[in-house]
Design a protein that fits this description.
Elements (H helix, E strand, L loop, with lengths): L13 H12 L6 H12 L1 H14 L14 H13 L6 H9 L3 H14 L12 E3 L2 E9 L12 H4 L1 E5 L6 E6 L4 H5 L7 E5 L2 E2 L5 H9 L4 E7 L12 E5 L25 E6 L5 E6 L8 E4 L1 H16 L5 H11 L3 E4 L22 H11 L7
Antiparallel strand pairs: 1-2, 2-7, 3-4, 5-6, 5-7, 8-9, 8-12, 9-10, 10-11
Helix pairs in contact: 1-2, 4-5
Length: 378
């Protein structure tokens, strides 16, 4: 019976047929029952469908005809929704498209497309416990990005995390996980984890700069051996949006922990604050860059302190510090919390033009109507 079952008799993917032949010739299959079970498994429609999908996905990038046009279709979706939301009252087609694109199935289809286009489907090695000096150890593998690396304390451009030397133990630990980076997406690296090895190189006694040199010289997959932190919590993105009331450039900020991890912005930009767990440095991304990795910006408290310090230096040190501090905090504009409003179809918001006679209210109204004539009929 064993010799009667041939690989050619199995109606499945060629790779599965080859696997069956290899296993059949091994000594591990000792009876007909095991052969029948293996044959049924390899012929199952579910397994062959998965292998077929894997084969097609693996060809992405090697076949130009299968190459995606873009990898940010989800971002385009949000931009289209924003445009449609302003025109739902003008056309039933716009209204129907607006509701269709908000469907969860459509949005998750685009998210899956972007994940494949960005090749975010490679498996990550799950954490595996080992014994070493009675401390739990985990092994984590991340795929190195192609972005340049600079800076003395940041692995952020490579793996989406920053490292530092623990002041008490002198060991290398994970200082910060950047939202949207490889470390954050893996879910396996946490703030406080101790780095023992990088690509089988022991980092004991080395500086953050030494570790970054190892990372910079590495190609492809990077393997970390870590001692887990005592307390680990999953990072959750905040839903806070703010409008900045000042310009910020991390390249000229002497106090930012890592300039390469900073996010530059200008007055008036709307920022999505994704993490506020650090009292002085928030993580944020620009509102219209949803697929981008988050960057560091000064928190409201830190920016208020800076402005108060600058005013104190400018006005002299003979002020009443407590009274001045309370007064200034009421007057300082750093971030203004905002929320996005999607107008409901058929409900309109009035626009009121206010100004002294002769400042051009009628001219402004005329230009607005000329730019969008449909509004005149409302």
């Amino acid at each position: 019976m064993l010799s009667a079952v041939m690989a050619s008799d199995i109606n499945c993917d060629p790779a599965l047929s080859k696997l069956f032949t290899t296993l059949k010739e091994s000594e591990n299959l000792s009876n007909d029952q095991e052969i029948d079970f293996l044959k049924a498994l390899l012929e199952s429609k579910e397994l062959n469908a998965l292998v077929n999908v894997h084969t097609k996905v693996a060809k992405v990038g090697r076949n130009d005809r299968l190459a995606p046009v873009l990898s940010t279709s989800a971002q385009v979706l949000y931009e289209v929704l924003e445009q449609l939301s302003q025109r739902c009252h003008l056309s039933d087609d716009c209204k129907e498209a607006f509701h269709l694109l908000q469907d969860a199935h459509v949005q998750h289809l685009l998210f899956a497309h972007d994940a494949i286009a960005q090749k975010d489907f490679y498996p990550h090695l799950p954490e595996a416990p080992f014994e070493m000096d009675e401390e739990p150890i985990k092994i984590v593998q991340l795929v190195k990005s192609n972005e340049p690396l600079t800076g003395a304390q940041s692995a952020e451009p490579i793996v989406g995390a920053t490292i530092k030397t623990d002041e008490e133990t002198g060991k290398i630990i994970i200082a910060r996980i950047m939202h949207g980076g490889a470390a954050n997406r893996s879910g396996l690296i946490h703030v406080g984890d101790e780095v023992i090895e990088v690509n089988s190189i022991n980092v004991e006694g080395k500086t953050p700069g030494d570790v970054l040199t190892i990372l910079q010289n590495s190609e492809g997959t990077i393997t970390f051996k870590l001692v887990p932190a005592d307390a680990k919590g999953a990072q959750r993105e905040s839903k806070v949006r703010v409008r900045a009331h000042f310009d910020y450039n991390p390249d000229v900020d002497p106090y930012i922990p890592c300039k390469e991890a900073g996010l530059a912005f200008q007055r008036g930009d709307v920022l999505h604050i994704v993490a506020q767990d650090d009292a002085y440095w928030w993580q944020a991304r620009r509102e219209h860059e949803r697929s981008a990795r988050a960057g560091l910006i000064p928190s409201r408290a830190l920016q208020e302190r800076r402005i108060i310090h600058e005013r104190t230096q400018r006005d002299g040190n003979d002020l009443d510090s407590k009274q001045n501090d309370d007064f200034d905090r009421e007057q300082i504009a750093t971030y203004e919390e905002v929320a996005k409003l999607y107008p409901r179809p058929g409900i309109f918001r009035p626009v009121v033009l206010i100004g002294a006679p002769g400042v051009g209210r009628n001219e402004l109204r005329r230009r607005l109507i000329a730019r969008d004539p449909e509004i005149e009929e409302m």
